[in-house]
Amino acid sequence: MHSFSVGKHPLLRLLRYAKGYRTQVWSAIACTILNRLCDLAPSYLIGVAVDVVVERENSLISRLGVTNIVGQLGVLSLLTLLIWSLESLFEFLYDRLWRTLAQTIQHKLRLDAYTHLQELELNFFEERSTGTLLSILNDDINQLEQFLNSGAAEVIHFITTVLAVGGSFAIIAPSVAPFAIVPIPFIFWGSLAFQNRLAPRYADVREKASLISSRLTNNLSGIATIKSFTAEPYERSRVMDESEAYRRSNQKAIALSAAFFPLIRLIVVLGFIATLFFGGVAVANGNLTVGTYGFLVFIVQLLLWPFASLSQLMDEYQRAMASIRRVMRLLDTPIAIPTGSHPLPLKAVRGEVRLDNITFAYKDRTHVLKNLSLHIPAGANIGIVGATGSGKSTLVKLLLRFYEIQAGQILIDGIDIRELRLRDLRRCIGWVSQDVFLFHGTVAENIAYGNFDAHHEDIIHAAKLAEAHEFIVQLPQGYDTIVGERGQKLSGGQRQRLAIARAILKDPPILVLDEATSAVDNETEAAIQKSLFVITQNRTIIAIAHRLSTIRHSDYIYVMDKGEVVEQGTHEELLALNGIYANLWRVQSEV
């Protein structure tokens, strides 16, 4: 995993991140510099051309042995053709290299950010909106791509121009050079001041972009609720407020950015006028040739005008840096639940589960479980019941290490789950949640999720065991029917049966049924129970239920209340206790 120090400048961190592409980076930089040098060369050739016409036999080219003026102009023409051809070649090369590099780094950065995101604990996602994370993975990484596509080349062009032209001034006309160079420190000072003031404004722009992305994602996910409560005007006003905040944030950045160019233009004009005046005086005094003077007047614009475009360059740079900071901040997020190193081969799992004095509390909340102990023998079928909020579903999430316990131990086959490789741990547990999530895709793809190479016959067999085959074949395209985002084209009971089929196909040694039949009718539940009797053989079953009929035939039943086990025993033993379980049974039996 990447180890970025928090305090490093985002550009340095990006360069370190791209160190695996040094050859491409240096090739792109070299072609960009050569392109700019070829682009500047015609300005020098103009000075040489004036020198040929005015000085004739005493020109610079004549010193190379070509004294005829026609020959000199011919040499000059060939040089011009060669330089322009090279300029076009290098432009093609650097453009292709930067764009390819942008796509490569964008792809790698997005993939690394997403991979890191997948390894973070559930608590991380509960504290952040989906829209904010999507904004980082899409908008911010795309902003980086745009900067690498064009901004990087512009920065190198700028630096190359300043060094090449400034050096030419110092060599050719040292007496005039100070007048052209004097404005540069003022421009740099203004640019740095501008950058320092602009950086926080663009950071705010990126935050506002995250908020509106979060709002839109949330509303699109809950569109049915919005429609049912006729809340369209209310949600439109909320989107309008978020969009207006984004617009105002951008306006603040634009106001500062727009003021920069006119100020720089005035400084550039002063440098140009100084070169024009003092260079002309030098020619009149015989200290400078006409050709050199023409070159200086022309080239001073190439030295100073790039500073005028510095505002746009800084604008692009700050947008990119703000985005890089957010992406790197995500990559900096520590993994709170690291994987263990102990392997757990699937075929070797017996399925014994032991919870030994575990204590757990969600962040900033009171304890959900307190010194709880359970022993589930391998191959046992146990039931867990209790009121809402008693900690039943939390047990499952702790078993899967979605969260980390604060005290105690959870063991599978005598091994602390913190020592196990997470992939091995979760592969040996099949979980059917009461909150079923189906992916946008076909029925068959959702059943085979996690078993992507499953044969179609196996998918059908699992669906039959889950009492899902009958309704599936009645769908428009059968097993190839698209279920829609989150399975919205199916009923709650249908989604639940597909989730059971998915768990059956996984064929895990430990099967957890968390309210697995809560959304089906009594007749379907009875059919599923018969199927479950078949598929639960030779595996450990943990069934969490509100309906006591679901777990009445379990080998052992635990009754939870406020994070503790308050009753335990078989169905008959618990009825004989005449406690919480017996009261629940009487209430449900009377319904």
UniProtKB/TrEMBL annotation:
<feature type="transmembrane region" description="Helical">
    <location>
        <begin position="253"/>
        <end position="278"/>
    </location>
</feature>
<keyword id="KW-0813">Transport</keyword>
<feature type="domain" description="ABC transporter">
    <location>
        <begin position="353"/>
        <end position="587"/>
    </location>
</feature>
<keyword id="KW-1133">Transmembrane helix</keyword>
<keyword id="KW-0472">Membrane</keyword>
<dbReference type="InterPro" id="IPR036640">
    <property type="entry name" value="ABC1_TM_sf"/>
</dbReference>
<dbReference type="InterPro" id="IPR003593">
    <property type="entry name" value="AAA+_ATPase"/>
</dbReference>
<dbReference type="Pfam" id="PF00005">
    <property type="entry name" value="ABC_tran"/>
</dbReference>
<dbReference type="InterPro" id="IPR017871">
    <property type="entry name" value="ABC_transporter-like_CS"/>
</dbReference>
<dbReference type="InterPro" id="IPR003439">
    <property type="entry name" value="ABC_transporter-like_ATP-bd"/>
</dbReference>
<keyword id="KW-0812">Transmembrane</keyword>
<feature type="transmembrane region" description="Helical">
    <location>
        <begin position="66"/>
        <end position="86"/>
    </location>
</feature>
<dbReference type="InterPro" id="IPR011527">
    <property type="entry name" value="ABC1_TM_dom"/>
</dbReference>
<feature type="transmembrane region" description="Helical">
    <location>
        <begin position="290"/>
        <end position="310"/>
    </location>
</feature>
<feature type="transmembrane region" description="Helical">
    <location>
        <begin position="155"/>
        <end position="188"/>
    </location>
</feature>
<dbReference type="InterPro" id="IPR039421">
    <property type="entry name" value="Type_1_exporter"/>
</dbReference>
<dbReference type="GO" id="GO:0005886">
    <property type="term" value="C:plasma membrane"/>
</dbReference>
<keyword id="KW-0547">Nucleotide-binding</keyword>
<dbReference type="InterPro" id="IPR027417">
    <property type="entry name" value="P-loop_NTPase"/>
</dbReference>
<keyword id="KW-0067">ATP-binding</keyword>
<dbReference type="GO" id="GO:0015421">
    <property type="term" value="F:ABC-type oligopeptide transporter activity"/>
</dbReference>
<dbReference type="GO" id="GO:0016887">
    <property type="term" value="F:ATP hydrolysis activity"/>
</dbReference>
<dbReference type="GO" id="GO:0005524">
    <property type="term" value="F:ATP binding"/>
</dbReference>
<dbReference type="Pfam" id="PF00664">
    <property type="entry name" value="ABC_membrane"/>
</dbReference>
<feature type="domain" description="ABC transmembrane type-1">
    <location>
        <begin position="28"/>
        <end position="319"/>
    </location>
</feature>
<protein>
    <submittedName>
        <fullName>ABC transporter</fullName>
    </submittedName>
</protein>
